[in-house]
Amino acid sequence: MNYVSLQDAAAEIARVVGARLRDVLNSPDAFEINFKGARDLVTEFDVWAEDQIQEFLAKRFPSHKIIGEETAGKLQQSEGENLASIAADSLSWCIDPIDGTTNFVHSIPHVGISIGFLENGDPKAGVVYDPCRDELFAAASGSGATLNSRKIESSENDKLINAVIATGFPYDKSAAWDRCGDVFKAFLKEVRGVRRFGAATLDGCWVACGRFDGFYEFGLSPWDVSASSIIAMEAGSRVTNFDEPAKEDFSVFAGSFLFSSAALYPAMFKVIQQAQWGSTD
Known about the structure:
The chain is globular. It is built from nine helices and 14 strands. The relative contact order is 0.14. The N and C termini lie far apart (about 40 Å). The protein folds into two domains: about 5-150, Fructose-1,6-Bisphosphatase, subunit A, domain 1 (Fructose-1,6-Bisphosphatase, Chain A, domain 1, 2-Layer Sandwich), CATH 3.30.540; about 160-275, D-Maltodextrin-Binding Protein, domain 2. It has helices at about 5-25, 45-60, 70-80, 85, 100-105, 175-190, 200-210, 220-235, 265-275, and strands at about 35, 40-45, 65-70, 90-100, 110-120, 120-130, 135-140, 145, 150, 165, 195, 215, 235-240, 255-260. It is of the alpha+beta class.
C-alpha cells in the first residue's frame, strides 16, 4: 500500500477545507451554533467540513470506510458495531473536521483539521492542518513526519523539570474527573509548565515537532488521535494509552493517550501511574 499517496490525498482536501474555515473564523455571527452537550459545541461548518472531506475521500477511495466525528453515531447504528469493530480488518479514514470548535466559535485562532488513515484499525498515514498558521503536519508509515514538507523530530529532553507539556479536559466533568485532576496536579509539581490550548490534534503534532515535550489527555476519541499519532510516532515520539495500570498498549479507540518524546516517556508515564494508582508496577 502506498501510504504517501494517501497522505497526499488527505493534505489536498485539508487545505481546501481549511481555506474556507480561515475565511469565516473571524466572523462568528456568520454561522449557526448548536450544542451536542452542555459545553460541547457544533457549528454548521463542522458539518460542512466533514461533508466535504467525506465526499472527496469517497470519490478517491470508494472501498474505504469513513469514520467522522459528526456522523460516527449514524455509522455505528447502520453497521451494528462499535467503531473499533468497524475499523478492524478494513481500510478506513477517521476525520475531525474542526478540532477546537470552541476556539473556532470564539474566534481564537487555534483549530485543526485532522484526517487519518487506518489499516485494520492502526494509523498508517494522516495530516493535521492548522488553517490559522497555514501549517500542515503530515506523515506516512515508514516515511517520517513533516511540517510544511520539512522533516520534524520530537524533543530530546529527558528531564521533567525542563519540560513544557500539554493537556486537555473532558467536556463531561463527571467522567474520570477525579483521575484527571490528580494527574494534572501531579504534573504541575514536576514540570516547567502545563498548557491547555483546546485542540488535541494540534497538541499531538506539537509534540511531534518538539514544541511540547509531551501531551496527555483523558476522554479522547479516535478522530482526535488517528492522524496525530502516526505523525508523532514517525517523528520519533512515543504514543500509548493509560487506561489500565502499567499497561502501555496503543489503540486509537482507547480513551486516554500519552504522547511524549522518547527520552521523557518513562518519567511521564511514571507520573501518570503514581497519580492514578499509587504504583508504577
